[in-house]
UniProtKB/TrEMBL annotation:
PANTHER family: GNTR-FAMILY TRANSCRIPTIONAL REGULATOR, MANNOSYL-D-GLYCERATE TRANSPORT/METABOLISM SYSTEM REPRESSOR MNGR-RELATED
Residue ranges constituting the UbiC transcription regulator-associated domain according to the UniProt record: 3-147
A Gene Ontology molecular function term of the record: DNA binding
SUPFAM superfamilies in the cross-refs: Chorismate lyase-like
Gene Ontology biological process: negative regulation of DNA-templated transcription
Top-level taxon in the UniProt lineage: Bacteria
InterPro entries documented for this protein: Bact_HTH_transcr_reg (IPR050679), Chorismate_lyase_/UTRA_dom_sf (IPR028978), UTRA (IPR011663)
UniProt name for this protein: UbiC transcription regulator-associated domain-containing protein
Native source species: Streptomyces fumanus
């Protein structure tokens, strides 16, 4: 945001022990209804929402640790990779699946865009070096507000 001359910030709400819906359970490799920690984010530019994200982590993975709440405790806001490292889990890679679609009524309301405006929906999942999914998220970005660019490092 700073490079764009905007003040970046975020707001979040975390709910612990939320049963995983079928699609989230499949992405996390857990049973449907298994408990998760769900965190909903609104990312802001100059105080206006520009991106939404809903993150899901298996509760059994972080229960009883200092990182159980992504935005609470001594590792608040440290991100998935650093939080998992704090409990001995090495995150080795993430997979992102972007797809265009129309905004839902709720997304449009939160983002201040027209209902059915085009958004990019990114399904992102972080994996441990053991191949276990440790977090999955649905990220919503209004197509008219930004350009999504990826840089992919090449290891020789």
């Amino acid at each position: 945001m700073k490079a764009l001359g905007k003040q970046g910030d975020w707001e979040s709400r975390t709910d612990a022990k939320v049963p995983a819906p079928a699609d989230i359970a499949a992405r996390l490799g857990i049973d449907e209804g298994a408990l998760c920690v769900r965190t909903s984010y609104e990312f802001l530019a100059d105080g206006r929402p520009v991106q939404l994200s809903t993150s899901w982590e298996p509760y059994e993975l972080t229960a009883g640790t200092l990182v159980v709440l992504p935005e609470g405790g001594p590792h608040a806001g440290a991100g998935v990779v650093n939080r998992m490292a704090a409990i001995g889990i090495t995150v080795s890679h993430a997979v992102e699946q972007p797809e265009p679609r129309q905004a839902t009524a709720e997304e449009a309301s939160l983002l201040g865009i027209q209902k059915a405006a085009l958004v990019t929906h990114i399904r992102r999942t972080y994996y441990s070096d053991q191949g276990r999914p440790v977090e999955t998220a649905d990220i919503i970005v209004p197509a008219a507000h930004c350009e999504i660019v990826y840089e992919i490092p090449i290891n020789r």
